Protein 1
Amino acid sequence: MNVLLVYAHPEPRSLNGALKDLAVSHLTGLGHTVRVSDLYAMNWKATADAGDFLSHPEGERLAYARASKAAFAGGTQREDVVAEQEKLLWAQAVIFQFPLWWFSMPAILKGWVDRVFAYGFAYGVGVHGGERWGDRYGEGTLSGRRAMLSVTIGGRAPHYTERGVNGALDDLLFPIQHGVIYYPGMEALPPFSLYMSDRLTPEEWPSVEEAYKTRLDGLFTDTPIPFRRQNGGHYDTQQVLKPGLGLGAGGTRIHLLQPGEPEQHRLTSTTSG
């Protein structure tokens, strides 16, 4: 199988670098083909601007989404963007390796998403009508692929729980797992998270190594996060969860299939009131 590893850390000798190297070695040993996008080594351009579009007239007001759509359709995107899009289409699984900085991904990785997930490629696809708002959240260009976050975290695990001061990790990662991975169709696997990463000792590394290998072994077999499909009948014409669904859940968890709920819900025109 083909695996793309998108890696965002400025220091090759970091813990993130070690996890990246471990993933490449272990997955290759399992017979998979692995490609790495090392964003810092590539000197990846993180800013989304008019320079992303080869045919954008100089001095013309930039409407980035509109320009992205035209460039993707017309074949006038920058070569670095096209190359990353081709890697995503080649891959059957994607691993994002990064440190949690200020409750999110590093700016260089966010810039990769901003530029690579172009209009017509990762969003703005499919037909809109009735309860259907295009092909997204479980459908789309990248459907049929899996993705997993491998995240190093400086804080302690209790800080990232339901009652922890930093908020539950699933809530912090929701914009990435639901919005970046699931939106264009990829299945999101539960993240591999490593806490107190700046305090990891050499004696603790073997247990981390084995835990990560186990997760890599299940890259194509582990059960993904059960996000609701946008076009599975769960949402009304305003894309609001229909009454009677998500009972007992709160926050972002209402967008997960609850026990006993069918993956495909009855399609009606029911509104949220």
Protein 2
Amino acid sequence: MPVVLREAWTTLVPDMSDRHGPLPPLMLALTVVTGLVDAVSYLELGRVFVANMTGNVVFAGFAFAGAPGFSLVASFVALGGFVAGAVTGGRLVHRSHAHRGRMLLHALCAETTCVLAALVVTLVSGSPYTGGVRFTLIALLAVGLGLQNAVARALAVPDLKTTVLTLTITGIASDGRLAGGPGSKAGRRVLSAAAMLAGALVGAMGVLHGHPVLPLVLAVVILAVACLAACVLARADAPWTRPLVSG
């Protein structure tokens, strides 16, 4: 089997005795969620990201410069919500540090609650989402993705950060044979990019075809399934559940 296909296969169907056990496919699922919710936030809530904070910092700069179509308030609400989610996620991570399965479960339950709350707001208010409803949705989704980012960072599954692709794509190029590197690990890295692309594509299709609630419904379903899986993993006692040794 070619190396790329083998890397992709072991990401989707991991060896349970591997250091990260069953975590890679769950990280891919969360990457799909990222694409779904950012499609909603950018296309439906007005040029703001709830997962990609680099984009929001850049958008804030555009807004400061007076560029039309960018909201400084929306960017700051997203940034504030994301930081609040990351702080909450950090507390959950540190409390569950001894067991990576429980760490994932606690963070996923909190994230699912946030995204589900956002879904309820969209169903009750109806589109278009303006004023306080818009900012409430931005805040709820940003808190949820801040939680996700905190746990993904703590789990530290290689090349599966769930919200950041810049370093992943850089690795494909700079680690490849063409660059004189040891190997691009393209199988896993391309899967990560494809997962976000798929989420963004489905999310955008929902918004553009008049079904802005659909991406959030799908995100909640994916998160709910991930929570059920994490419930099982929280009872595991395999080597992958133990904390990573830093340094």
Protein 3
Amino acid sequence: MLPPRSRPRPGVRAGTALLLAGLLLAGAAAAPVAAAGTPGEPGTAGIGDPYFPQDGNGGIDVLHYAVHDAYDLDERRLRGHTVLTLRATEDLASLHLDLLLPVTSVRVDGRRAAYDRPNRHELRITPRDPLAAGETVRVRVAYDGWPGTIRWRGDAPWLADDHEVVTMGEPHMAAWWFPANDHPRDKASFDVSVTVPRDLQVVANGVRVSRRVHGPRATTHWRSVEPMAPYLAFFAAGRFAVRHGSDGGLPWTVAVSKAVPSPTRQRSMRLMLRTPGVVAWLEGELGDYPFAVTGGLTTSLAPGFALENQTRPTYPVLAAGSVGTVVHELAHQWFGDSVSVRDWRDVWLNEGAATFMEARWDETHGGRSAEQWLEQTYDGIDAHDDFWRIRVADPGPGRLFAWPVYVRGGMALEALRRRIDDEPTFWLLLRTWLADHRGGNGSTADFEALAEQVTGLDLDGFFRAWLHATSRPARTAANGLSGG
């Protein structure tokens, strides 16, 4: 994600009547269905991430999401249902999902199920028959509400106006538009079908399967076959200029909002059309692209950041010459999307790597070398600056997207490159990391262990200085810095 300095906090925009209607719907708590016997334990309301204890849920593994949403841009109202195919990983009397929209019904394998809301973020479901470990069921949740009116622990990421909507946000977005096991540890395949007025287009992750017109409305179906973390799922609806193609056998789709003024829209499209070339360059550095399709979308809205939605990053209108942002978000397809964090405190593995690949792009495209970037950044920031006070490998939930996590994370990788002092070994390390964890998750401890295994070096002091300390690393060769 770029830039991290000013994450958006859209204001709540809805009339009092809409807000009251949303509260009334939220108050329709539970279907009056009693559960049968209750062997097994209740599923926990969290997957175990210390930063966000209620993110994700215990006892379940979601295999697939089939999202069916209809969005009214005039009312800013979202109605829909999602069918989750999930497997119980333990005996469960009840299970949790993450959802902020008011719920209207729940069914498990076609049978009505009891549900309640322990808090606004959690949907607790009690099936008629408890689930046995290993059992796979289909859970259908219907919902209806105004996502733009919802704030949760300071987040209000819904981004929409009367002409366009785009669902992009990190670390939280899914719960505003579909029920989820909302943590990167639980990835699943997706089918996303969105209904809007027929004169609008819908763009989402993956491959467009169909577009079906019915009266004044149209439903567009997109499919993502590779497992994806819920926060990376997105859709955008509006009027877009769309281009398609294939580069080296890799299909791509890019789009730019027609609400962007014409000269700027043309510039934005030229930037989006650089996507296939950037992906090809990244493949040369990192290995095969991890997904079946690629692309990008520029919105006319003002999110204040770009985001690495899987297969199709979303961007604000960017200034001329902003190819570095495209490099950053596409590098995330490897670092962040294919290999995701185990816990959110490991986010430097995503952001630091994407920042490093920006520096690598510059040095291979006529700019300054990554070593010059490292040294100049190190020398340009005073040792007593707050930049050095964040613990990169554990910045805290309120500073996940602080600029030092990005820059110091990228500097750490370039310093590691200098410390290893062997180009083939350094790139072997990155490629091994990506291959070993492809489609899964990794932690800082995992990366540190792999680095020592691949290089044969004792890197404890190096990683302590760059990732765990809250002071500027000493200028030493052992820390990958010249002149030490």
